[in-house]
Design a protein that fits this description.
single chain, alpha+beta, PH-domain like, 5 helices
Length: 176
């Protein structure tokens, strides 16, 4: 039995899937390395790059802190239950019912072509004339209303999309 089937067997849940902490640990190490490099620019003999050093010494530690917060248990996760899904990012939660979301898919980032993420459409965002016009303008196979920052539960992006889609199908079929 694969991991998606194992998680799906826990329906109606709730099932909580945390961010992939190893990735955030790598981000934290990268930001810490850039911080050290920035400090090195500040103390460099001759001081030719002091301004860049101070800029880096201010900005890069913020990345260390952000990555550290993302790794705290319960800070960033996705929770699935029979009624919907809850996305928690840095302790802020956003909830959708299964009827509010559709079309889970792997989407490519426009800025970094090899970066792939999980995306889905939000039905409640398209109420009203203005929102409908925006939806028609942005409606393409590559675009989704909501794009998640991570793959959750140690699943690959494809498996996470499959889990979300199957969980939604099951929840909607059992609510009828």
């Amino acid at each position: 039995m694969d991991r998606v089937s194992t998680l799906l067997a826990q329906f109606p849940g709730p099932v909580r899937l945390a961010v992939f902490r190893l990735k955030w640990l790598a981000y934290m190490a990268l930001a810490a390395g850039f911080t050290v490099g920035a400090v090195d620019l500040i103390v460099e003999p001759g001081g030719r790059h002091v301004i860049m050093g101070w800029l880096g010494a201010i900005i890069f530690p913020l990345g260390v802190g952000a990555a550290a917060v993302m790794m705290v248990p319960g800070a960033s996760e996705i929770a699935l239950d029979a009624d919907g899904l809850t996305l928690r990012t840095t302790y802020r939660a956003r909830r959708w019912t299964w009827t509010d979301v559709s079309d889970f898919a792997v989407v490519n980032d426009d800025l970094i072509p090899r970066l792939r993420r999980i995306g889905f459409d939000e039905q409640r965002a398209h109420r009203g004339r203005f929102a409908s016009a925006v939806k028609q303008f942005t409606d393409s196979p590559r675009w989704r209303d909501i794009v998640l920052t991570d793959s959750y539960g140690g699943l690959s992006i494809e498996d996470c999309v499959r889990l979300l889609s199957l969980w939604q199908q099951r929840a909607l079929s059992e609510s009828r």
